[in-house]
Amino acid sequence: MAKPQQKRKPAKKGNNRNHNRSYNNTPRKQQEHVKEITYSTPLSVGQLAELMKRNSSEIIKFLFMMGNMSTINTVLSDEEIELICMEFNVTVHKEIVIEEDDIEEQIGNLEFDEKDLKPRPPVVTIMGHVDHGKTTLLDTIRKTHVTSGEFGGITQHIGAYQVSVGGRKVTFLDTPGHEAFTAMRARGAQITDIVILIVAADDGVMPQTKESIDHARAAGVPIVVAVNKIDKPGANPDKVMAELSDLGVMPEEWGGDTIFTQISARSGEGVHDLLETLILVADMQELKANPDTNASGTVVEAKLDKGRGPVATLLVQQGTLHTGDSVVVGTSFGRVRKMTNDKGMEIKQALPSTPVEIIGLNEVPRAGDVFMTYESYKKASEIAGHRLEKQIEKERNQTSAMSLEDLARQINEGDVKDINILIKADVQGSAEALKASMEKLDVDTVRVNVIRSTVGTITESDIMLASASNAIIYGFNIRPTAAIRKKAEEEGVEIRLHNIIYKALEELESAMKGMLAPVYEEVVIGQAEVRQIYKVSKVGTIAGCMVTDGSVRRDCSVRLIRDGIVIYTGKLGSLRRFDNDVKEVTNGYECGMTIENFNDIKVDDIIEAFEDQEVVE
Ligand code: GDP
Ligand code: MG
Hints:
Layout: E1 3-5, E2 36-39, E3 43-44, H1 45-52, H2 56-65, E4 75-76, H3 78-87, E5 91-95, H4 103-108, E6 118-119, E7 123-128, H5 134-145, E8 160-165, E9 168-173, H6 178-186, E10 194-200, H7 207-219, E11 223-228, H8 237-246, E12 259-262, H9 271-285, E13 288-289, E14 296-305, E15 309-318, E16 321-322, E17 326-329, E18 332-340, E19 346-347, E20 349-350, E21 355-361, E22 370-374, H10 377-396, H11 404-412, E23 418-425, H12 428-440, E24 447-455, H13 460-469, E25 472-476, H14 482-491, E26 495-498, H15 501-512, E27 520-536, E28 540-553, E29 557-562, E30 565-577, E31 580-581, E32 584-586, E33 590-595, E34 606-614
Parallel strand pairs: 1-5, 2-5, 7-9, 7-10, 10-11, 11-12, 23-24, 23-25, 25-26
Antiparallel strand pairs: 3-4, 6-13, 8-9, 14-15, 14-22, 15-21, 16-20, 17-18, 17-22, 18-19, 18-21, 27-28, 27-34, 28-32, 28-33, 29-30, 29-34, 30-31, 30-33
Helix pairs in contact: 1-2, 6-7, 6-13, 11-15, 12-15, 13-14
The structure holds guanosine-5'-diphosphate (GDP) and magnesium ion.
Residues 134-135 line the site of magnesium ion.
């Protein structure tokens, strides 16, 4: 089997050990067959034969028997190389060349011998609707499962903690909620092994319950359900089970594959069972890590402390972190001067799945950043320097994580097979119609994957999910607020807004065909808030407005927005200041407006002004 090999000190790009060999095909007199080969760049039949010390005609013959015509110059795929080597009893390794400062890629390609791997505690995140009991559960677990012996006095909040359950450890990330979870995932960090979905039995499935399910699923993390507040008189656990089953989270006892537990986070009833369930799920996942290698992992939290300087909570995921280690964290670096665990005790070393707070970094990293230790301080500083340069370069060239145009280009180049879409619509019917029609779009081998489809305007959680999943957001008859637009821009998430279903479908389909060429693009030029309403017979409703962003022009189109939902789209009827018709009113000024053929304007409505502008390529 071809296995990517972890390289501690990878060769520089392009430095490939095969370069200087010549690959002639003179048959060898005395064949001495090779038992093991390693390659890094694509191989032709001739090159593979040379490495295996066999005659290329043998390989050509084998491929022919498999139904493939080849010549000595045919370039082989990894699968073909694997097949050929299997046939000739040669063990094959593919060497992946990874840049030395690409810690993310190095961590992603870490591979260890089975014998070096030791079981590690699961890392758990609690998610659920607001007030369903996340904080209470985290507190109860901490209070009841920290043995007094290891208790250093005050438990510190460091962003994560570890408890013991019958001699086994479980690590909890104690910034609950899917925002934190997804914000980390958006940076590429996947640190949660299990999600506890908490649902209050007296309230049932609520919007954030559904969001949590979406987030856990998108990340491929197993869910354990905790039906909470069973001590309450109105508690109805069966209803919660039925509601979750409708969403595809089905209890084992009903034939599904999700474990449900019933708890009272407040009294502690059932909490121990829940913890034992976590151990069970962790055992099924066979979570392991190698403690005997240099440490790497992820930043859980970081801040600047007045007295101590940059302070970061790291979750060790591989290896063992020691005080004195030289470490690169994101783009910062330093020597671990002091390590403190979640019980406020100073420790000298931290094993996999252990959260520790460290000081000694030159700068504050970000939650979700990766870290890795190096053999010397000098090395760590060099690597951090390269990473900083790269990051600055990246920020300079920052474009969308995934825009429709990128998508069209990548599809053209054959790089994309799945398009992730998030749909937000004004009513359930439109959301469902869009989802169904989008999923039906069938263009060659490209597939649409709707990861969320809900009613309402675009929220921050939508942006973070889209960012983490490289998804494009389709808004139907809704308008995001200025703050959400800004957030989307920061995260590089593209939002496409439509009010006609077939137009949205047409646009997506042409992108899937790799040819997106919009001729006109709508440009929002300003926004105004309705402060007062005057009903005037013959004229209709006049909206007394304050322009709060950009400007409004007499000949522009407008959209009336109420609570984030588009109520009406049409032309501006009139634009006045102090009884005079004016051409334009800019940010910070009051004005009176009417909308052509539309009078249902209310105080607090938002009027968005836009124009269709030709797109200049
Ligand atoms: P969060 O918003 O999900 O973090 O929810 P909290 O943990 O803050 O809990 C919200 C409210 O529900 C608080 O008043 C808790 O005391 C209460 N609560 C949480 N768990 C239970 C429970 O098991 N039983 C009862 N009766 N109340 C609970
Ligand atoms: Mg809370």
